[in-house]
Amino acid sequence: MTTWITICDTCKRDDWTAETHDRPHGEDMAELVESHAAGRAVRTRRVSCLMGCAHGCNIAIQAPGKLAYTLGRFEPTEAAAEAVVAYAEMHAQSDTGRVPFREWPQEVKGHFITRHPPLPDTDEG
């Protein structure tokens, strides 16, 4: 199963203004994550708004049948992007999507916003 990194490309951190930035922080973060994910065992995609504006830059990590996570409060840096991709690779290698805390890259610690259980396999209630 493929683990996807979904990056909000419209995220703006609190310091964003039209006078100081020519594009959203999310676009910067998306480019960095895409660059670090190239040729690795995860896929990336961009979306316009993950509705976590108070936590920008926002990223979702998800795969069918596994726990899904929303991370945020990132600065668009090389170190943050590498850590997101490294964590997503660990998620991909896990049967459940759960990665032990001690294995998390330091740069993702403190950035988890939500965890979602996997969707049921059937439409039965």
From TrEMBL:
A Pfam cross-reference name: DUF1636
Superkingdom to which the source organism belongs: Bacteria
Record's protein name: Putative metal-binding protein
Record lineage: Bacteria, Pseudomonadati, Pseudomonadota, Alphaproteobacteria, Rhodobacterales
